[in-house]
Amino acid sequence: MKTLKQLLILTACCGMLPPISGALAKEFRSIKPINAAAVMPEGAQPPREFKPVPGELVDQAVEKLMASWGSPQMQDYLSKSFFDKDRLSDVIDTLVPRDATIRILSVQGVQTLQQWEEPNPVEPAGMLRVSRVSVVVRTQLEFTRPDGVLETKPGTTEYILKFKERIEGEGA
After folding, report:
1. Where are the domains of the chain?
2. Is 107 within 8 Å of 95 (Cβ atoms)?
């Protein structure tokens, strides 16, 4: 009597089994476009002209963010929807040495992800262009260990930044 393995090999060689590899991967897929209005805040409208945020402005924002790192001012830069922002401060206070500093090694991958226009709360007739920008930042945490040795910890993080700028010619 032949084993099951030998029987399967024999029937596959004779063409008695259907090809299994391609049959399991086939399925019907539907493509649903993303509704841009669904991801914009209420009262916002698509921009008349898409303008990427200048790299220099992103660099300045990253420098300000890193300068506030580990201080109470860092909370001002975090979004209201940032999950557990109090815990982030607690972790930095507890796990990171007091003399630690953070140094920016490079700012890469700057990309404007989304943009919309919304009414300017300061100028009732004016409009603001709001941009969500992704930026990848390579940093290095530096501190002195208790034995006097300088220790460095490199890291890479993606930040999503929000920029608001007044649209020129609107309500000026």
Report:
1. 40-166
2. no
